[in-house]
Amino acid sequence: MHQQRSEAIASKMKEQIDLNRTMTALEFGAGTGILSFLLKDSLKEIVMMDNASEMVNVMEEKIRSVHAGNMKPICFNLVESDGFDQSFDLIYNQMVLHHIDDVPSILSKFFRILNPGGHLVIADLYPEDGSFHGEGFTGHNGFDTEELCNQLRDLGFKNPKQEPCFVVKKPVDGNVVKEFPVFILTATK
Question: Does the 2-188 domain belong in CATH 3.40.50.150?
Answer without folding.
Answer: yes
